[in-house]
Give the backbone structure.
Amino acid sequence: MELIQATEREAEELLAFYQHVADNMEEKGLQQWHWGRYPNEGMIREDIGKGDLYYMREGESLAAAVVLMTGQEPEYDSLRWTCGVRPGIFHRLAVHPSMQGAGYGGLVLDDVLQLLRRKGCDCVRCDTSEKNGHAIRLYEKLGFRRCGVIRWKDSAGDNITFDKPLKRETPLWPIPMKPAFRRGGDTPWGGSRLREKYGKDTEDPHTGESLEVSCIPGLESRDPLGRTIPEMIMEFGEKLVGNYADQPFPLLLKLIDVREQLSVQVHPNDTYAAARENGKFGKTEAWLVLDTPPGGGKLVYGVRPGTSLQEMRKACEEGSAVEALLNHVTVNAGDICYIPAGCVHSVGDGIMLYEIQQSSDLTYRFYDWNRTDQNGRKRELHLDKALDVADLRCTPVPVKVEKAFGVKRVLSELYFTLDLIRTDTMETVPAVHEFGILTVTEGKLELRFAGGSIGMKAGDTCLLPRNSPELVLVGEGAAALAMPS
């Protein structure tokens, strides 16, 4: 059995077939099809006339029918899909009630996929009523992915949309990310500007971190359908993250609001973390300064040259004496600070940061400015570990980056690269290496690619798959693109 393209000779038989299927749906309580409204005689005759309607027989009887076409319905153009730039679609898939449950739906779809491949399509898209459990199970069994919902005119409810790649090289679309948040007692220094400046859905007035792309357990960011990055890697594999499909996800991206001075802290390197922290990654990071108080913000960036380990320990044990040993610098929006593992650092009041780092939550605190919580308790310090890993010779300086249109690579380090993109018209996004993390830092931009686009405003982040289509940013604004080295 195979699909056969319908002609006018089969028109009356197909009209009777579709009416019978629609009536049977209603009898079973599935309010998806209503003969005369959807589908109707005009639709079926138009499908036949365009050569889009196909049928399958069992002996002399019609067993199934389906409409397939290259391109897509205009209503699909504004939807968010997961893959493909040359889509094909199918509609009005129907199996005769007496033959349902016998596998005809799967046979029809096998032929649909082959036909669309031969027509040059690189993906297939469809939708079905959220109440049509049989169709949903069939699509998911055949490897279709849920993408979102659509509501057709005069529809009684939402339809779930699905897609599926048809070729190995089918590109994956960029994936808008929903962040996780660190807040409250975890970030007592945090504020409310992640909501006020970027519209983040925070729930606590002391929200310090928006984890835009994160695989930290319990703090995973998600796609619009709620899937975590590990779940997406299980589904998409190398097409999403390249060689990291079978390795731990290496990067973590945060937006940070520092309402009140951070603790003086340091992070371990990979060797120390592996030996002392159950095999975790160490933590090397970098900051792009997004906002500061008028006149600039204050950072602790390393320690005073010549400071010894013994001096540092003694000062930390005494408390505020350590403040005299710290190297203080002033930064402004647009400055870059690279912070290798071992670099002592802190962030001052009123600063907002973009932070790209290794995927690690390891922080050792030297000193917390003698702060206490509402119960009079001080935060835990980790003096021994902090002194173990601190590189007291590390006293870097912030890098001033001139604002200029185009793409500028500002960091190329052991664990990550960072490109800054600025445009007032259109700029091509650099080719993705393994995967990319694109965050709009200023203005409003549209991320365009063949077959689709994603509107982004300041604070929005997309995960860029390894086999993304060619991407351009259109509009007036700026963005940061981080990738593993």
In short: The CA atoms of residues 123 and 166 lie 5 Å apart.
